[in-house]
What we know:
A: two-stranded antiparallel sheet, B: alpha+beta, Rossmann fold, CATH 2.40.50.100, 2 domains, 10 helices
Amino acid sequence: MKVIPGFRLTLGITVFYLSLIVLIPLSLLVWNTTELKWAGFVKIVTTKQVIASYKLTFTAAFFAALCNALFGFMTAWALVRYKFFGKKLFDALIDLPFAMPTAVSGIALTALFVDNGWLGTWFCKIGINVVKFAERFRLDFVNIPYLDKENGLQTAFSPIGVFIALTFIGLPFVVRTLQPALQDLDKEVEEAAASLGANRFQTFWRVIFPSVLPALLTGFVLAFARALGEYGSVVFISGNIPMKTEITPLLIFAKLEEFNYAGATAISVVMLAASFVLMLMVNIIQWRTRRK
Amino acid sequence: MSIEIKNITKRFGNFTALNNVNLKVNDGELIALLGPSGSGKTTLLRIIAGLEDFEPRDGTDILFKGKSVVGDPIGKRRIGFVFQHYALFRHQTVFENIAFGLRVRRGNERLSRTAIKKRVLELIHLIQLDTLENRYPDQLSGGQRQRVALARALAIEPKFLLLDEPFGALDARVRQNLRRWLRKLHDEIKLTSIFVTHDQEEALELADRIVVMNEGRIEQEGMPSEVFHKPKNEFVMDFLGNVNLFHEREDGSSVLGSENTSDLLKKYFVRPHEIDLVPPDNGGRGLPAVVKRVQLAGSLAKMELVDADGREIYVEFSHEKYNVYQFQVGNSVLAVPRKTVVFDDYAI
């Protein structure tokens, strides 16, 4: 006898809600795509422009998520383990990328990183100096991408800009998934490791890190998945140069504007499949680590 | 190896956890730090381990075998520390947990893989968990986890074993078994050990010597029989088992349980097993009382009495002795203390 009954009711609501919000729209997406013949579908999703957008979207999203995993870990660590002035404020700031309209952050980031923006100028100057340095020491055979003699390091309107925007929106995912995991760490476990002769590095690497790894992985994938679908904050800073800085969601939007619904959904289906595979992978990894 | 603690004081903010504590632990001893929560016993243990710092003052020191270890990090002190909540590494198996201390060794202290395996399997055998070496801590019972924690601490061949309420989180039966097992283990390996407990029975049964602590001070230290039978003060008397409090009136009429201080002369402490009960018509000096409750299950007959002022008196005696009068609930009796304890420092 359970104190609070309601298994059937909850399950019913869950299935209904999930269908309404998630399953029906997604299956419609797949359904719309079936207007196309297989050959037509393949043609749309493998044009050069689309392939280039996949490459950009996936690599930028991956590195943004990786960057967030590293710095997000440190942020969560600092917020959980130490007391410092303004800690509550910093903690609240983490959620800002969640809460802000993405277009606003996109415009703000663009203004910061354009060639004459606050940060963009510095990247330009540093970039130019790096090029000069390379020339002087005859290292110019090393081809550094996004770096040129006149403009220095291109942040806005280059793939780097895409990376920056995706890093911005992904941070809260990593921090917020890691915080509870770090909070749950038992102080005694660390003391036990120390009493057994482990140094700080060993205590971190052999005891702390493995116990928060599942959470870190979840945070990483959430940030990655979010970055794959991000549109608003990216389209301003990327500049949308065909074949160079076009992200996949932008192409979908472009197809929609041309009333090419089948084309839009075709690309969407590819993204959907990719996201699904990613989520599945994470669940498998988590399931494996949990089993321990 | 011996441990010597000199003039240790520790404060947490305004709270004094340890107040100028001195303690000497001899080689091979099993010592119990006994006291209520907040008495500073765990803090003292953690300071010995190096998990907690203390106020540096003149004459303050911690010596292991005559050598000061102040400033040495915990890893260097080579101490086996067993935590109350086991503190096992959850993502590691029993084997990996026990091997941890050996695997993190560096340089020429490092053991070969086979040597580590041999040592760990020996320890697993010692804690009687053979065949469970590939389990994870979540798959073990509380008693098994605590034994793994103990084996993990022993793996590094520590100079001492420090145990923080080692049986605190276990249920009564497991606790009993593990207690006996630990005593046997100590008799075999003779490792100098200190354990913290708030359970007087545990301390009396397990320890070679008991250190009774209260409010950051050591109240008394000595053999279990010594602290039990010759308590130095009220606190020790009260903490080590049940005790009845009696007052003698100025008129000397009898030993009475009364809180009316104006006519009090002396304060007596009497353990429940040191009171005789006789029928009231027997005469003689004693305290008239009425039987409130009789509890005959167990190795002793236990009774609760109430005197004229409504104060409760606890009495225990053997079943043979009980059978002489066989008092029932409601019977009037005369409680006659056989042995009373009076403390000199008591003053009204």
